[in-house]
Amino acid sequence: MKALEGVQILDMTHVQSGPTCTQLLAWFGADVIKVERPGVGDATRGQLRDLPDVDSLYFTMLNHNKRSVTLNTKSDKGKEIFVKLIETCDVLVENFAPGAMDRMGFSWERIHEINPRIIYASIKGFGPGPYEDCKVYENVAQCTGGSASTTGFLDGPPTVTGAQIGDSGTGLHLALGIVTALYHREHSGIGQRVTAAMQDGVLNLCRVKLRDQQRLQHGPLTEYSQYGQGIEFGDATPRAGNDSGGGQPGWILKCKGWETDPNAYVYFITQAAVWGNVCDIIGRPEWKEEPGYATPPERLDKISQIFDAIEEWTKTKTKLEVMEICNPLNIPCGPILSMRELAEEPSLRQTGTIVEVDHPERGKYLTVGNPVKLSNSVSQVTRSPLLGEHTDEILADVLGLSAEEIAAAKSAGAV
Ligand code: CAO
């Protein structure tokens, strides 16, 4: 039995943030019923298509293990069916633009009245305040949540990251809120409202930068390479390039082949505890004892020069050779792995983190499986549903509608 078996999720999510959340819940065993507009569906089905008339990878990779029902929740008959689904389900999740559910006639008060045990979970761009009515996409959240102002190089513009911390990051936060509310319901018997704002989710992931903002009031941030370079700090946490962000200096260094391979690089950390090992492998054993190099505070103004010396060594090795040499010596480092390399990595296939899925219209494709592993609730990734694939099945089995009632809903254009 899966951890969330028996939990029914009424999934009104679309695009990326909400679907990330409900996909996770589905992987843990919840029955996720994705509600989509008849004939239209989640907009991502048709976005960034690589094959004509086939659900995009954008959609398929965010909607595994779900069932799809089409329902026009703005029509009278559709509303009737929607009320029945609210009565039946444990959780309703949505990430529509602010006010969309209210405009549909389903405020939290109304939903709670229909089913006091239901948990109603939402993602919006912003929490209550001046921007609460705004529509928000990934990079807006990265920019307004503190990520962009602290990402990039000191002499360059604010930069967004490839990791979807605004969308997928907030989806993860919401999933935790939902299971927490389900746990609370075990004791209280009552559902509650769960909200996660994308700005808040990004800020939570950037909390070390708010830490640095406050440290700035008491002096320069000595672990930032700008300190070693003698560049003055301004009044806000600066962009720190590839600095490690912790107390142990780190940087991205070139490896053998960097001239032609854009990913022939390694992240290298000069952790204080293994400084001697670093000195030995790069052929500078004298730095172990030399005044100016022997202790971390002495090295702070020479970080760039030290990484230049380490890079002279890493340039003679491939990134994987660097990893093989450093790991036994406890020197933390990480090769820069491309998406191609990750897709081909056998160990990720073995753990189910990269999975091959078969889809009736597009054939085989790769996806990222459940990154959270439960020993008694192993995730099996099943393909995303076609639009409305489970409409009849859900109306009949979940809601108990007769064949005549289903036919009537269809002829009224509700499903
Ligand atoms: N039946 C009938 N109507 C439906 C429906 C259904 N099954 N499903 C959706 N609709 C309607 C909605 O009610 C809404 O109608 P109104 O505008 O009349 O209220 C309409 O479809 C469109 O919904 P939307 O405004 O949410 O969609 P959008 O494409 O205009 O905006 C987005 C997309 C993502 C910007 C917006 O939903 C949003 O800000 N969401 C919250 C933040 C978020 O999750 N962003 C991350 C997105 S991933 O990058």
Biggest sheet layout: 6 strands, parallel
What class would the helix/strand composition place it in?
alpha/beta
> Could you tell me the number of beta strands?
11
Ligand list = oxidized coenzyme A
Helix content bin: 25-40%
The coarse overall form would be elongated
Tell me about this structure.
This protein is an alpha/beta fold and 415 residues long. Helix content is 36%, strand content 13%. The chain has helices at residues 17-27, 57-60, 76-88, 100-104, 108-114, 138-144, 167-188, 198-205, 207-215, 225-228, 275-281, 296-299, 303-314, 319-326, 339-344, 346-351, 391-398, 403-411; strands at 8-12, 31-36, 66-70, 91-94, 119-124, 193-197, 250-254, 265-269, 333-335, 354-359, 363-368. The protein has a six-stranded parallel beta sheet, sandwiched between helices. Strands 7-8-9 form a three-stranded antiparallel beta sheet, with helices on one face. A two-stranded antiparallel ribbon has the order 10-11. A hairpin with a 3-residue loop joins strand 10 (354-359) and strand 11 (363-368). Helix 1 (17-27) crosses helix 7. The longest helix is centred in the middle third of the chain and has 22 residues, at 167-188. It is elongated. The chain starts with 7 loop residues before the first strand and ends with a helix. The mean pLDDT is 97. The protein binds oxidized coenzyme A (CAO). Oxidized coenzyme A is lined by residues 15-18, 35-37, 43, 71-74, 95-97, 100, 103-104, 123-125, 135-138, 167.
